[in-house]
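Hi R.,

Here are the chain sequences for the assembly we discussed:
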Amino acid sequence: MTAELILFLIVALTAIGAAVAMLMSRNTVYSALFLILNFLAVAVFYLILGAPFIALAQITVYAGAIMILFLFVIMMLGAERLKELDPVKWQRPAAIAITLALAAEGTYIVFSKLNPSYVVESFSGNLADPVSIGTLLFDKYALPFEVTSLILLAAVIGAVVLSKAEKKESEQ
Amino acid sequence: MNLGSTPLIWVTFFPLAGVLIILFLKPEWKKAIRWTALITSLAVFGLSVWVLALFNAANPDAQLGVNQAWFTLGGNQISFHLGVDGLSILLLLLTTLLSPIAILSTWKAIEEKVKGFMIFFLLLEVGLVGVFLALDMVLFYIFWEFTLVPMYFLIGLWGAERRIYATLKFFLYTMAGSLLMLAGILFVGLKYGGFDLTTLTSTANIPLTVQMWLFVAFGLAFAIKVPVWPLHSWLPDAHTEAPTAGSVILAGVLLKMGTYGFLRFNLPLFPQATIQAAPYVAALGIVGILYAAMVAYRQQDVKRLVAYSSIAHLGFVMLGLFALDQLSVEGAILQMVNHGLSTGALFLIIGFIYERRHTHQMDAFGGLWKVMPVMGSLALVVTLSSAGLPGLNGFVGEFNILVGAFGSKALGSPWFAGVATLGVILAAVYLLHMFQRVFLGPVTHEENLKLKDMSLREIIVLVPILILIFWIGIAPQTFLNLIAPAVEKLLSVVSAAGLALV
Amino acid sequence: MNTSQLFALAPWVVLIPVIALLINLIVSGRLGEKFAGILASSAAALSFVVSILLAIALGSDPMGSTISLGTWINIGNLSIDWAFRVDTLSVMMMLVVSGVGTLIHIYSIAYMHADVRLNGDLKRYTRFFVFMNLFIASMMLLVSADNFLMMFVGWEGVGLCSYLLIGFWFEKGKDGTANAAAGKKAFITNRIGDFGFLVAIFLIYWNFGSLQFDKVFSMAPMVATAMPGAALAITLFMLLGVTGKSAQLPLHVWLPDAMAGPTPVSALIHAATMVTAGVYLVARSAPIFSQVPGGQTAVTWVGTITALFAATIALGQNDIKKVLAYSTISQIGYMVAAVGMGAYVAAMFHLITHAFFKGLLFLAAGSVIQAVERGEEAAHSEEIDPQDMRQMGGLRKRLPLTFWTYLIGGLSLAAIAPLAGFFSKDEIVAYASANHAAVFWILLIAAFFTALYVGRQISMVFLGSPRSKAAGHATESSPTITVPLVILAVLAAFGGVLNLPGLQWLETWLAHTFGTVAPSQFVWLVALGSLALGLVGLAIGWLIYGRTPVKVGKPDPLKKPLGFIFTGMQNKWFVDEIYNFLIITPFNALAQFFAGPIDLGSIDRVANGLASGTQAVAGGIRKFENGFVRSYAFWMLLGLAAIMTYFILR
Amino acid sequence: MSGIPLVYYLGLAVILFSLGAAGVLIRKNALVVFMSLELMFNSANLLFITFSNYYKALDGQILVIFVLATAAAEVAVGLALMVAIFRSKGSIDLDQMNKLKG
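And here is the predicted structure of the full complex:
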């Protein structure tokens, strides 16, 4: 077993463990924190896979900005503990069954159909320096980029409108 | 494209100009909205008269064509193809004539949501005109379905108490039929060389069994629209619940889409199947004539009575079309127009009475001729025209249908026409019954004593129809000349196919 | 003017009344009653003048002419013109229609003046004359048509006028609806006849290839030999038309009810002109009928039986107009029988004299009715039925002029020499005696009944003493009413001259249309016999009804000796009831069955059933749409899992 | 370095995705469901990066940037909705948001 593989397993188990813990914890704040842990673990993978820019983006945007937003909302709404009673009785067992099945099928497909001898290099140098990413983004992907910016704009306006409309109603 | 040379585009889409103007008017400006709609529809009528002036009656083919490639489907060109020929010119004129009349009739009747009403009405006119002018099957289908939407709202928003039920029934019935037609259109178009009707009629050579299936697919869509017995049960409800203007257009024009469809698709495209099916379709028509007449006789609601009378009248049209005789087919086309005029006028009169009394029940009337002499007299003329009195329009159509069907080779027996002629007696029975219950006898209700006679606007609404009622009755040749060459050509196609069959 | 110019006037016989009625419609009584009445009457009179001019032209050119105004319908082989036929037959009919019509128009000016006041709607005065002019126009169209379809226009047109005029007082009558119902009954019964005519027209078109008279008639012998079945069918369907329009068995039921119309209407439409259209149709189609013996026999027997049948009913009636109505049916039966036997001239002769004397009788009856109404008003008596003969009596002294004219009309009807009716009826009976023994005897019996009911009516109305206050106070009518009576009385008295045995003017006149027919004979034995029979009938009528006046509530004196036969006569042999039972009730039930269980119960339910079926299925599927987002997600993932399973198992 | 077999990464992504899906299906708390969605995004991103490395192509990384941006947008709107719903209903229980059912 190489050190590389050990590193992989440690990080992978961290990611999975964090995900499971996020699922299980009753407290929403804990869930959020576990998710951050998961994101960090995944960011490590990005580094391993030679995508330092994305890894840092992941940490700043996801683990940083987005999750902070989550925590804000959680604080704002009060970390609510909901009764975990399903209105549709078979929902929980059926859900567990279907996810297990999905996971099983997914891994089965992955391991049976793909040649295990394909490998990905770790720390393969500067595949993705910010310059080349930027060049590609503003050249080949200029149009999707603009579209995404529009989506973001719409989201901003949407968020503003959603919270503002509520105010108006309460004022009346 | 030189717009001056494309009158058909103008006549089809001009109502949209009115829609555009009305969109920018405030809903409270009812007067402006009404006038805009009226002037638009009058302009469309003027444009259709322009079409008539350019129309060459001696030419049996589609004229004034507009043919613009649109998109392809499975390698087959679908085009924006409009044209007018002898089969459609009268229906075009009928549509554009009845639209301003119907709009003028709503002056007092529609007070709520006038803006929406007028927009839907003008959109409806676009659809109707398009149906009669389209020469591409896909384009036809688009216009055909397009008429459903405004009509759905006209009944559903401005109708009487059970309007939702009626409008849904109307929508679903017609939709069910037209889906079959869509399947048929795609099948014909993809398998037998394109969607253009003018080229299809000359090139399509469809085997008999396939023809039969396609005949049924198209026929069901049209039969529901006509409606042919026993697919009629949406009609009385739709008529009863629709607002007056809606009933006028529904009876006057929408039903003709069905008979026109038979004429435009089933006869020329599936001639052999037509010949085989003719006796059965004609028999259904005759059942419709007699059955609807008897049912009409037992109605308590005037509008329902007239609705059933429509079924009977269109039974005559179906008989005429499928007798496949020059006389009967021309009579049938003329009868489509006649029915539009007479029944349209009947609905207008019923609407005028409804505005005064707010009921359609015949029990609530009686003796109205004494109170409203002018309305009584006009109603009498219209009733008699519907009953087929010689000298008025209904007779010319009915006579030609019956005399043609009597000796028709396609039907092969005079019994068809003989039995159908009984419908003439029954028409008198239910129409006079109606006239008596509404206009004759003593005035039995206090509130009827104070009813006002027709206003000038109401008379203006009816006068064009009355003029045509007499005109067609006394000098129908003006109109018959327009349709004769096209019918001759159509029947030669059918009879040629009939020869191949033997 | 030369003859062809005169012939070209023919369309004006129709156009003049149409123009007049349009003027009356437009000014719609704003110019007062006088204007409307005089305008309408002068239109009828002008039509009469044009007819006379046409007759004069025919005098010099008896072959006549055809004047076409233009095409009506022209499709394929079918070509129909608005064409007017001027020949001796049509002009004779024009003369009768417009002549009698003019007199009745004049009479109506005064009669309707009183009528609209009595019925309380002055505005309807103009409407009456509009309808009357429309009638004249339609009737003229009928008789002047040059093809069957145009004739059919007039044929239905007169039916329409009849409908409108019967229901003229549409809010009156029993329950307020009786008059309107009577009009509807007339129109629908007529339509049944029209159905026959229409089918006959179809048959003619497909067997002769044309509807134009000359073409059809020239081919008649050929078609009759080639296709006897079709020819027979044509005649029988025409006969159906005749029975409808001319109120023959079995479609006679509408005419008695038609008496609900104002009396001038009864006189003009339901006695003198419209109802004889059927006779005219057969006479006009003589070239076809003469080729089809079967059809002729049918026509003859329908006429003969109707003549007797209606005469018996007339005897049992108490309503002065109903008696005349059944008498009309009976007399038209004579004419129909005559045309059936081929005695066209005799039929036309009787048609003319009948127009005179029956028009006269109706007008005089109208005069009586209004006189009684005036008496009722003057005596302030209780409401009585002014048409009930049991309430009359003794009017001879109070209404001398009416009485004498009525007497002349009555005697002419009873065929008493030397009045017009005697000659015309004798010609029919004489022809029957030579050709159809059975028909002859039945017509003779009918003639006896005719005399009997005439005697009964005159006795009940005019003889004896008044049986009600109203009758006692009745007063004679104004000259506008009596002058037409006198003119018609003169015609009814001396109309026989037209075809007086030995002179035979009418016969030579009509020979140009009918060709040479067997000359009518004057058989002394038959003439004297039927005259004697008529006198005996009158005498018996007077003996029974003149001496013992019938009063309301007391049974008729004939009731005792005749028993149930008289009950049958009184109740019109229950024909209406039988029709009600056999046709109308089943029709209503069937219609109700269609409207209820079939249409709403089955057809509509099938459609709605499809809809609710769809709804039920949708309701099942709807369970999946439980509103819980996570359930939806579950189904999505299940789909994903299914797709992956498919890829694994593939 | 010899590298790690591709299938390991893919298997990890599948497991993370399944866990996210399970979260969506099981949890009622709308916020946690949201987070589970993010987890699923994450697993997809991991795949992008893996293949980007495997094929030595930068496009995968670009796509991750787009996903990041879109996710940010989604979170912004989603959380705003959450707040709005909480204001009107007083709860973020997904099972109470069932008013739109047919």
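The two ends of chain B are 47 Å apart (CA to CA). The beta strands of chain B are 63-73, 76-84.

Let me know if anything looks off.

Best,
T.
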